[in-house]
Amino acid sequence: MSAAAQDAADVVIRAATPEDAERLHALLLGLARSTGLKEKIRSKPADFRRLGFREKPAFQALIAERGGTSLGVCLYFYNFSSWRGEMGIYVQDLYVADEARGTGLGRRLLAETVKLGKAQGATHLRLSVDRANLRAQRFYRKLGLKAQEHELMFQATGAAFERLSRADQRKEKE
Fold it and tell me: Distance between CA atoms of 79 and 143, rounded to whole angstroms?
């Protein structure tokens, strides 16, 4: 067995626990650094602990590690497709540290996520990729994922989010 294959075989993938909040945050900082978006990170480890490990968790996560060193993460949550009438998995973040890239770890993390999702009744997986992240796009296409060219992702944050929260109140005043 080659050294790279042995290293890959020594990697354990496990469910994140509340004690992993700092580890999750550090891995996602690694993702942000690798995509040149570190300045956009506002989350703190306490956010992961508070929202990921409550009675109804906002997300679940798998951590890949070797000898106590974190090498990757897949952070996901379940969603519902109203058009399909089926539950799916949405991968919010997938990250593999530079030293573990090319070992199949990203594929393993996604495969384990899908296996867990199937056990819960999920039938499909969705994720979004930054348009500039061509490496990730090639990776996902190689795995058989297809870009949904007919969809655009929209987001409301800050003032737009607040305006939407008050939209029906303004209508009542008119």
Answer: 21
